[in-house]
Amino acid sequence: MFQRLILKLYLILQAYAFATKLDTEPSCPKLLAELGDFQKNLVTCVTHNSVPVQICSNCKIVYGNMTKQYQRLSNCSEYFDQDRLNLIPTTQNLLSSIWSKAYCNECDQDDALQKYTDKNEELSTCINKTANNEVCATCLHLYRDLNSYFTSLNQRYNGKVCFEMQDQMNRTRNHWSKGLKCCQRKPKLTYFTIALAFVISLPMIFYTSSYIITIQRENNHGTLHDEDPLLNVPGPTASTSSTATPGATSLPTTSSTNLNETTSAISKKIF
Predict the structure, then answer these.
(1) How many degrees, rounded to 5, is the angle at CA 113 between CA 108 and CA 119?
(2) How far apart are CA 67 and CA 60, in angstroms?
(3) d(CA 107, CA 116)
(4) What's the CA angle centered on 28, arms 22 and 29, to 5 degrees?
C-alpha cells in the first residue's frame, strides 16, 4: 500500500515537470519571430554605424543576441532544408558574413581596438588643441605612434585587421596629409634627371656614331680607287722570258727591214 502511494506521487511529479517544461519553453513559431526581430535590429545597427564604420563596437551585443537566438531555433527542424531557397539559414549566413568580412572578432584580440581607440583619441586631442601652423611638429610623435601600432597589427594578423580600425586609420592618414598638409614630400629629382639626360643623349650618340662609321667607310673606298690596276700587274720574270714553247722556237723570225725590201722587189718585177 505504501509503495503504491509512492509510485503515484512520483508519476504525478513527473507529469507536472513535463507540463511545466512545455510551458516554459517557447514554441518554434515564437522562436522564429524573435529571430526575425534580432536580425532586424542588427540590420538597423549596421546601417546606423556604417559611416564611419563602428559596427564592431556598437553592434556587438545585437549580433550576439541574434547568434544565440539562431542556435535556439536550430532545434526546430521544420524550418531547415525544406525548400531550395532555405531562407532562414541563407538570411542568417548573409548577416553573419558582414560581421566576418569586417573582421570584428579580431577587434577583441589582445584588446587591440581599445588600445587603438586610446591612441587615436590622444592624437585627435592634440590636433584640436594645437594651432594649425604648429600641429604638424607638435603632434608628429603621436601620429607616428598610432601609425606604427596599426602597421604592427597589420603584420601580426596578415592584413586581417578589425575593419573599424582600418577605416579610422584611413581617415586619419587622409586628414593628416591632405587636411593638415603634414606630408609634403619633396620629390628627389636626381634619378629623374639622370634618366632624362640619358634618353636625350641617345639620338646624339646614334647619329654621331653613324656619321663616324660612314666617314671611315668612304675613306677606305677612296683608297682602293686610287690604286692603278695596271701598275699592280706583275712583270715577266727571268724564268718566264727565258722559257719558250716548242712551237715558238721552230718559227723563223723576220725583221721589218727585210720585209720592206722584199715588197719593193716584187713591185719592180710587176711594173
Answers:
(1) 155
(2) 11
(3) 10
(4) 120
Buried b (16+ CB within 10 A) or exposed e, 95-111: beeebeebbbebbeeee
Please identify which residue in the block is written with the cell numbers 526546430: 76
- The amino acid that residue 4 corresponds to is R
pLDDT at 201: 82
**Intervals of the chain under pLDDT 70:** 1-25, 184-189, 221-271
Residue 11 has, within 13 A of its CA and on its CB side, a CA count of 6
Question: Which pLDDT value is given to residue 266?
Answer: 53
Instruction: Report how far residue 204's alpha carbon sits from residue 110's, in angstroms, rounded to the nearest whole number.
Output: 64
Amino acid 249: pLDDT: 43
DSSP secondary structure of 76-139: -GGGSSSSSS-HHHHHHHHHHHHHHHTTGGGGGGGGHHHHHHHHHHHHHHHHHHS-TTTHHHHS
Cα dihedral 190, 193, 196, 202 sign? negative
What is the distance between the alpha carbons of residues 184 and 225, in angstroms, rounded to a whole number? 70
Per-residue burial over 235-257, b = 16 or more CB atoms within 10 Å of its CB, e = otherwise? eeeeeeeeeeeeeeeeeeeeeee
Map residue 173 onto helix, strand or coil: helix
250: which 3 cell numbers?
721552230
pTM of the model: 0.59
